[in-house]
Design brief:
- By secondary structure, this protein is α+β, with helices and mostly antiparallel strands.
- It folds into 2 domains: 2-100; 106-225, 2-Layer Sandwich (Alpha-Beta Plaits).
- Helices cover 52% and strands 20% of the residues.
- The chain contains 5 helices and 8 strands, in the order ααβαββββββααβ.
- It has a 5-stranded antiparallel β-sheet.
- Helix 1 (2-30) runs antiparallel to helix 2 (39-100).
- The two termini are 62 Å apart.
Length: 231
Amino acid sequence: MKGSHVILSLVCLVLGFIISFSFHITQLKMNNEKPNLSDTQYEKTLSLRNQLIAQEEINLKLQKELKKKQEMVQENERELAKQAQIYSNIAEDTEKLRMFLGKVKVKGKGIKITLSDGAYDPNEENINNYLVHEHHVFKVINELYISGAAAVAINGQRLTSQSYIVCNGPVITVDGVQHPAPFVITAIGDQEVLESAINLTGGVKDQLVNDNLIFTMEKENEIILPPVLGS
C-alpha cells in the first residue's frame, strides 16, 4: 500500500507539471509567443509526459488484474462456504445415525409408557388374553418411531435398528435379555407429538386397553438412554 501511495503522488506531481506546462504553452500561442525552453528542457518534459501515459496504462492494467483476483477470491469464499455447509450436514447426519444405531448416549425430554398385565379374571379361560405380548410392545415402539422418536428403550435397554423382541410366556426377550412385566417403554422426542400419536382415537392406546391391558403414559423432562454395548 505504501508503494501505491508513492506512485500516486508521483503521478499527481507529474500530471500537475504537464498541465501547468500545457497551459503555459497555450497562453504563449494565444499571445503569439514561443516557449522559453531549451531543447533539453522540452525533451525532458516530453519524456515525462510519455512516462505518465505509460504509467497510467500500467495502472489501468493492474486495476483490471486486481478486480479479476478479487472476483476469484469471492468465488473461492463462496465455494468454501458451500463445502463447510456440506461437511456440517454430513457431521449432523453422522451423529443422527450414531444415535439411531445406539452408539452414543442420548439425553432429552420425552415420554414414558408402562404396559402391565390386566387384572386376573377367573371367568377368562385363556390367561394370554390379559397378558402383555410382543405384538403389543411392537405397536407402541413402531408408533413412537413413526412419530419422530430419536431413541427408544424397554425397561432401560436401548433399542437399535437390529433389535428383536420375542415373547416367552409372562416375559419378553429383547436382544437376548429377558424382561418381566410391567414393561416400561421410554422414548426421547417431542413430547406433544409423541403423546398425541399414542392417544389418537382408535390408535395404539385404545387397542391396548381393548386387549385388557393396563396402560399409563407420562411426560418426562429428562430421559437418559445409555449407548448399546458390544458389537
